[in-house]
Amino acid sequence: MRTLDFLFQRNMPRWVIFFIDMGICLFSLILAYLVRFNFSIPQLAIDDFPFVFSVVLGVRALSFFFSKTYQGIVKYTGSKDAQRIFVVLSIGSLLFVVVNLIFYYFINQKFPIPFSIIIIDYMASTFLMISLRIMFKALYQELTNPNKEKRSVIIFGAGESGIITKRTLDRDAGTKYKVLGFIDDDKKKQGKKLEGVGIFPIDKLDELLSENDVSNLIISVQDLSPSKKQQIVDICLNHNTKVLNVPPVSNWINGELSFRQIKKVQIEELLERDAIQLDIDIIKEQLTNKTILITGAAGSIGSEIVRQVIKFNPKKIILLDQAESPLYDMEMELHDKYKQQQYEIVMGDIRNKERMENVFRTFQPNIVFHAAAYKHVPMMENNPSESIFTNVLGSKNLADLSVQHGVEKFVMVSTDKAVNPTNVMGASKRIAEIYTQSLNKNSKTKFITTRFGNVLGSNGSVIPRFRQQIEAGGPITITHPEITRFFMTIPEACQLVLEAGAMGKGGEIFIFDMGQSVKIVDLAKKMVKLSGLTLDKDISIVFTGLRPGEKLYEELLANEENTIPTHHKQIMIAKVKEYDLESVSQSINELIVLFNSQNNKQIVSKMKALVPEFKSNNSIYEELDK
Length: 626
Hints:
Number of helices: 22
């Protein structure tokens, strides 16, 4: 036992491995002669031994020394070590062939090392050096982590990625798992074995989890549909089995998968939908070689619009934001990933018309994507003057300057909270919508509005909040047990913004298909399970009551509105009431002037006059609706 401790608990000295490798080469050479001459070596061949053995072993020793094959830690042998041994032995054997040719053509027309000896020696030494390392590694793993102590794992996907995942589990000494089976949809693979492990259909997954104590299921399929992933995760969570994800091949380190890269499935992945099919040609025509101004470019939506737009090779992108540190982070990201692209970082406040005038005059943008806004409902409910100053005045400044400087298209990012608003934030965005729509009829600039719900992972969204609470040990706080929300991923939302912007003729409010609304309490419960915790045992959920201005259910269309389809199944056009620019401008100017009064009730009362459907909910401003 002490011998095993010496071998496995300490790394074997490098010189020992070197002499073991040389011993393998000596044995392989002797074996080659025995096999070649049917275990009866003639005297003529024995006479050549001093020359042959000195050449072969000398070349092997030098090649091992310079290639450092003996420096690898044997108990952690991997594919790179085996590849190095193979290359070094192959080069050495080719040198023996060169020696033979030199002797034959330039010295004595004789091959000093029989070619059959070279081939047998090469095969034997390669096999022994690699296999003995693998055997030593397997012995180490078994003795340090017996099979009975290993946790069972199921791999979803029996393709190339699945094989690599299994080999990664086998290779990485830090893991304590054994692969119980593969799950695959391919009927040709089902019932067969892969590296000694059975392949089962997906309808057997529930049975396998019921009959075995499976700690993890690893999804190794690179292009698994969101609906299929949802199905797998639901089955696993019912059996308290953790679900892990193999990252895309592009994220593997030097093309090799590491166990540490296999991460837990995130809730965002379960809310994703099938990939959006975009009309690339029409988007490319709109953006290529154009100067694009993106406001709120350091925010979650604005920054993703930058990432999407830059792929279409615009002439220049102007990144405008007042948030210094996030804007700097965005600049560093563009510097690292898009060095060849032209972009300009501009610090500025959209409420300052003089500053915005300078931006438009200097850069003369062709297209504006307006994503800058205040969006947190409770914050704006308590600060209505700031809401109108940014969401209304800021939008008005940009819209007016777009007309003045001949901008081709102005695409405004709005929100589902602008529909039948119950809070100041939603009402302020609806007022901005009304103004840009009415402005469209009197200008050459095409004003387009895009309206969608919550985006996953955006600043202040519910999922990062829940994740922080789970990591802190809880409780998870939810405003109401029945509250629901629509969700969309940030890239999906921004892709649809580009598509809607490209197809817009001016004056439209485009709404996006947000899919099915999600009950927030169900979302929280699933996040707890994905974290490997038990609800009401490891962590609890507490209901705190609706916040000021908060709705139980979000809407995408107002009551009097309806929609017409477009060529894109996930984008529709809302039919909304049209407003006269002159009367709208006068009312909005009166609203903006109220900022100086800092009288919240006066401001909100004027907003309600502008947006009659604005009915406050769970707010001090409910009295204004009576």
